[in-house]
């Protein structure tokens, strides 16, 4: 599925947070959004997963304007792993992942054996199956993050929106998550802080700074020492290992 934003503008009070953002993901492309704290990454993603309505501009899913479809239809197309996930009730891990099946159900339709099977498979893919009966609120931050990814997998959508998905995860689970996301064969738009993760996994990267797009291209095209200095004010070197893999070294 293709996701496109067209000239998205968002302001809070008198401050302009997004100043006309147009991004585009090809079908099954993994697109990274990077940029310093407060540059507007989450705000842009919120406009895409429709928890925030932009002041102007539009979001298209395969050419259909987001707000021309109802929330259930867009939830069949796009699942979200947001930065913060709180529940007011004490749900079990299995119940949280089952919520991913909701867009596929009719009103009052009960969960069936197929839904439970999808949930078990999603939990296995994030290696959380042994936590199925645990209370979600008792999990560590990294465990919760993996359960929320399982919920998104259970939603079985052609696109995933991820807001710093490796937040809270140790290096093993960071790699596990990105490898898993890469094998899903779906469109992914993800805010990413770790530039080496972005370099290793993204097909294309957009760089946001102060609500403006500074650059767009492949990791090799945009993650140059000059650009890193301009965006983050940090000296860096880019090196390639014997396998041709790019590494960013901060000096
Ligand atoms: N509801 C709001 N009211 C006022 N300001 C807001 C609101 N939401 C976000 N902002 C401001 O907009 C700016 C961009 O926030 P956003 O969360 O999009 O940044 P980000 O790039 O995702 O940052 P981070 O890397 O820290 O997660 C920040 O300065 C933030 O304080």
Question: What attributes characterize this protein structure?
Answer:
single chain; 251 residues; alpha/beta; 5-stranded antiparallel β-sheet
Plain-language structure description:
This protein is an alpha/beta fold. 32% of the residues lie in helices and 27% in strands. The chain has a six-stranded mixed β-sheet with strand order 7-8-9-4-10-11, with helices on both faces. Strands 1, 2, 3, 5 and 6 form a five-stranded antiparallel β-sheet that branches. A hairpin with a 2-residue loop joins strand 1 and strand 2. It binds adenosine-5'-triphosphate. The site of adenosine-5'-triphosphate (ATP) has 10 residues, from helix 1.
Brief summary of the model shown:
By secondary structure, the protein is of the alpha/beta class. It has helices at 41-48, 71-77, 93-98, 113-125, 141-154, 171-183, 195-201, 219-222, 225-232, and strands at residues 3-12, 15-21, 24-25, 30-34, 56-61, 64-65, 78-81, 159-163, 187-191, 204-209, 212-217, 236-240, 246-250.
SS element count, helices: 9
- Radius of gyration based on Cα positions: 18 Å
The secondary structure category is: alpha/beta
Bound molecules: adenosine-5'-triphosphate
Distance N to C terminus? 39 Å
Low-confidence stretches: none
- The tally of strands reads 13
Give the SSE map.
Blueprint: E1 3-12, E2 15-21, E3 24-25, E4 30-34, H1 41-48, E5 56-61, E6 64-65, H2 71-77, E7 78-81, H3 93-98, H4 113-125, H5 141-154, E8 159-163, H6 171-183, E9 187-191, H7 195-201, E10 204-209, E11 212-217, H8 219-222, H9 225-232, E12 236-240, E13 246-250
Parallel strand pairs: 4-9, 4-10, 7-8, 8-9
Antiparallel strand pairs: 1-2, 1-3, 1-5, 5-6, 10-11, 12-13
């Amino acid at each position: 599925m293709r996701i496109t934003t067209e000239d998205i503008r968002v302001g809070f009070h008198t401050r302009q947070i997004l100043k006309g953002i147009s991004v585009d993901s090809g079908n099954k492309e993994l697109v990274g959004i990077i940029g310093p704290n407060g540059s507007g990454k989450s705000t842009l993603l919120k406009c895409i997963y429709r928890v925030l309505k932009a002041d102007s501009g539009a979001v298209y899913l395969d050419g259909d304007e987001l707000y021309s479809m109802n929330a259930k239809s867009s939830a069949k197309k796009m699942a979200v792993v947001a930065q913060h996930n709180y529940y007011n009730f004490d749900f079990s891990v299995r119940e949280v992942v089952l919520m991913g099946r909701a867009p596929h159900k009719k009103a009052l339709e009960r969960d069936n054996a197929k839904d439970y099977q999808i949930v078990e498979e999603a939990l296995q893919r994030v290696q959380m199956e042994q936590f199925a009966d645990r209370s979600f609120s008792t999990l560590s931050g990294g465990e919760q993050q993996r359960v929320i990814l399982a919920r998104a997998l259970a939603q079985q959508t052609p696109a995933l929106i991820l807001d710093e998905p490796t937040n809270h995860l140790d290096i093993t689970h960071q790699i596990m998550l990105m490898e898993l996301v890469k094998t899903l064969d779906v469109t992914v738009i993800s805010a990413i802080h770790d530039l080496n993760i972005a370099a290793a996994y993204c097909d294309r990267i957009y760089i946001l700074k102060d609500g403006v797009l500074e650059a767009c291209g492949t990791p090799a095209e945009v993650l140059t020492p000059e650009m890193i200095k301009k965006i983050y004010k940090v000296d860096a070197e880019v090196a390639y290992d014997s396998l041709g893999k790019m590494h960013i070294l901060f000096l």
